[in-house]
Amino acid sequence: MSLEAFQLNGKTALVTGSRRGIGAAIAVALAEAGADVACHGQNPDPGGACDKIHALGRRTEYFEADITNAHARTALFEKVLSTFGRLDVLVNNAGPIRRAAAAEYSMESWEEMIEAHLSAVFHLSQLAGQEMLSRKMPGKILNIASLLSFQGGIRVAGYSAAKAGVAGLTKAMANEWASKGINVNAIAPGYIITDNTAALREDPARNQQILSRIPAGRWGEPADVAGAAVFLCSAASNYVHGHVLAVDGGWLAF
């Protein structure tokens, strides 16, 4: 296989939650591979990803939308299509995390986690799938799952439940769309240095517990996820369907 299989020249991607962190790293990596990239966030500040993509000579636009709102998701998708004219790659990355003991976990937090991390993934994937199927064009859908797709975690009942759902949804959609040339896969990041993990890293005891459990001996960086994303969004992964790829420093192997 040549390196051209990893290129995304002529492709357009939408990466949700790409203002910073894992989403920004993936957005820039896709642009480095040749894609034009629609970036997304929940507030007006586009972050630095768009500037980096512009510097690479690729087309990019920033779209603000609340992915917990179904109407906002539909509007986001329609704006991306109107602006870029096509969508070849969807990366479902956006979503916060809410931490609390299960006995005190509020229904508001539970519903937010399910909506942001599961319902939004289904809805945007459905919209992308409908577009790809109607045009009879191949495409790539990449969901960002989590180690907690496989494990329960601590104090993250809603997030863990949603991410377990993402793993199942990835496989279900892959089963239906693989024969149509649409690849649906997921990445399950381990403990990565992002805003979502700041509380864990700032707790000396918990930080040490986590570090001692990671065979690689360090927290991951957002860039550690980007290479796997390029693979799963490119022709190099054309025969990979319904897979959840752990990028975790060896955590699940320990």
Name the descriptors:
single chain, 254 residues, alpha/beta, Rossmann fold, seven-stranded parallel β-sheet, 7 strands, 43% helix, 15% strand, globular
What does this structure look like?
By secondary structure, this protein is an alpha/beta fold. It has one domain: Rossmann fold. Helices cover 43% and strands 15% of the residues. The protein has eight helices and seven strands; from the N terminus they run βαβαβαβαβαβαααβ. The protein has a seven-stranded parallel sheet with strand order 3-2-1-4-5-6-7, sandwiched between helices. Helix 1 runs parallel beside helix 2. It is globular, with a radius of gyration of 17 Å.
SSE layout and pairing:
Elements: E1 12-15, H1 21-32, E2 36-41, H2 49-55, E3 60-64, H3 70-84, E4 89-92, H4 107-135, E5 139-144, H5 157-177, E6 182-189, H6 198-201, H7 204-213, H8 222-233, E7 244-247
Parallel strand pairs: 1-2, 1-4, 2-3, 4-5, 5-6, 6-7
Helix pairs in contact: 1-2, 1-8, 3-4, 4-5
